[in-house]
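Table 4 source record.
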Amino acid sequence: MTHPTAGAKDNSGQAGSRWRLAVWGAAAALLLLPLVAMQFTDEVDWDLADFVFAGVLVGGVGATYELAVRRTRNRTYRAAAAVALAAAFILLWGNAAVGVIGSEDNPANRMFPGVIAVGFIGALLARFRPHGMAYALLATAFAQVLAAGVALGTGLGSTVGVTVFFTALWLVAAALFRKAASEQADGAAGLG
């Protein structure tokens, strides 16, 4: 029995399988890197909880991207999902590892998972449709700026560079989702 998309002309068959295998292999290597580093330095000291957190984070991002890839063949939508998921991964990983503001113990850092929650809730409300996803990522960019503003206003610290970086990623993802929505509309109208 052949796969329903085996004859598709988007080159997602065997090349896509190799690509996914490479990405999941890189994810596994990323998880093994701290284990190897712990053999050579005391600077890396992970416990079981750290590995579980990293595994859930890497696995969750990878599985979510797999769902996005299976949802559509639109490359712009896939790129938008990749940018948004990369931003979420970097923000969560960095915040857990060293903190966005000061050390990981700074109470202001508790706001940044909320930024991701805004994007996640927005994505659910949008039902992952590109037009709604564009708005969800705009809301996420706003939440990023708001969290940094609250931290600055309450004297907990400043994150101008980090805020600009993540806000730019959220806005790039929003623009890509908007473009994907436009491509979808053009395709539905017979123009694509």
